[in-house]
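queue> pop job 88
queue> type: inverse folding (structure -> sequence)
queue> payload:
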């Protein structure tokens, strides 16, 4: 099985794996310009909050690198005012590709800051561009390290918590939602990183994951990642979470996040809230694992988080390979998109995310540590972990 990655850069080429085709074919698409990056994010060929932020940053780096190498130079490289106007326009455009994942906004804000700092320092257009390229590549590069750190914090915290509840802290069963692994980040993952950490340290018995309809991030992507990591796992339909909690000993639910409000309310893949309500009913710890860049301190609570509505058609379709597997002339499994609703269906509700209130969350883990609520409180003080 090829090593899983969402983005690769080699020989001056920026490429992403087309996640709409996984797990049946691994096809890389070149991102040649800002519009390609925008379209790939909007159409969910790449998805996952940290991965889309990394791609946006790398697309800006690539765009500036090409401009510096092109002869004649584009006009907007002629002076810093024109450069500023151009880069700000590019960043604002990229930011609109998907509204809920704040990492994208954090990346574009960070690059805007770098741009202004370089201009304030009196650097010329060439130097300003180079500062932006360095910062953009750093946004991508720092992701893997912080994922490993938060996975370790969260994994260690969970083991201690289970021991505190009278368990052994080994042989844990952890359920997750959506896909938060290497495909959703620049590597290792957040909630799936925590599960991987438990597996690597001999503490995991089994990972459980929901299909995560309608895009099927669970059944297509998380299943594939867990297989490639040789982690024992079981898939369930989204409607089976209550049954799982009734009939199996599940020690925790670990999920990622697209935006965490100042009080800890968390937007994540649709279906996360259902799992949190059921986890509370069954007294199972519910853990959110995400980088600091997912925390939006400017939003006081979940009511201020914009929720992306996806096109209705996406909830009416299932995408996959023909079965029994039909191969094309090159030995590649043939893909199909199948309509599962009657033609002309009028009403379709298709929010991409929901908000889990802080009151249902046991711990929020970032690369800086683990936050829990004070006794009797319903909201988090995230100050120590941001
Ligand atoms: O719509 P998606 O697939 O981009 O949604 C992804 C999620 O909800 C993830 O849980 C979140 O982005 C965190 S990924 C580390």
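queue> result:
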């Amino acid at each position: 099985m090829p090593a899983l990655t969402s983005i690769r850069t080699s020989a001056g080429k920026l490429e992403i794996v087309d996640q709409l085709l996984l797990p049946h074919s691994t096809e890389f698409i070149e991102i040649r310009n800002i519009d390609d990056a925008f379209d790939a994010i909007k159409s969910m060929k790449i998805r996952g909050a940290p991965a889309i932020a990394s791609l946006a940053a790398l697309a800006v780096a690539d765009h500036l690198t090409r401009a510096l190498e092109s002869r004649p130079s584009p006009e907007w490289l002629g002076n810093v005012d024109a450069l500023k106007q151009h880069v700000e326009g590019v960043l604002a455009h990229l930011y609109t590709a998907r509204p809920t994942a704040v990492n994208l906004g954090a990346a574009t804000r960070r690059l805007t800051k770098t741009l202004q700092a370089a201009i304030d320092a009196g650097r010329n257009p060439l130097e300003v561009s180079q500062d932006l390229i360095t910062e953009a590549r750093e946004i991508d590069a720092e992701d893997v390290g912080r994922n490993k750190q938060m996975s370790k914090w969260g994994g260690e915290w969970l083991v201690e918590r289970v021991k505190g509840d009278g368990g052994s802290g080994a042989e844990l069963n952890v359920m997750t939602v959506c896909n938060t692994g290497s495909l959703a980040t620049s590597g290792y993952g957040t909630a799936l990183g925590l599960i991987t950490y438990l597996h690597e340290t001999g503490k995991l018995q089994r990972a459980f994951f929901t299909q995560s309809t309608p895009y099927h991030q669970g059944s297509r992507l998380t299943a594939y990642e867990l297989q490639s990591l040789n982690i024992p796992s079981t898939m369930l339909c989204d409607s089976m979470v209550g049954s799982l909690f009734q009939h199996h000993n599940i020690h925790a639910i670990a999920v990622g996040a697209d935006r965490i409000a100042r009080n800890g309310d968390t937007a994540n893949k649709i279906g996360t809230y259902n799992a949190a309500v059921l986890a509370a009913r069954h007294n199972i710890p519910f853990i959110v694992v995400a980088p600091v860049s997912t925390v939006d301190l400017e939003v006081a609570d979940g009511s201020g988080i914009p929720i992306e509505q996806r096109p209705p058609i996406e909830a009416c379709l299932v995408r996959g390979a023909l079965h029994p597997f039909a191969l094309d002339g090159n030995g590649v499994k043939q893909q199909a998109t199948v309509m599962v609703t009657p033609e002309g269906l009028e009403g379709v509700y298709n929010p991409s995310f929901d908000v889990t209130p802080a009151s249902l969350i046991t711990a929020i883990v970032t690369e800086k540590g683990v936050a829990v609520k004070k006794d009797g409180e319903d909201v988090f003080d995230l100050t120590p972990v941001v």
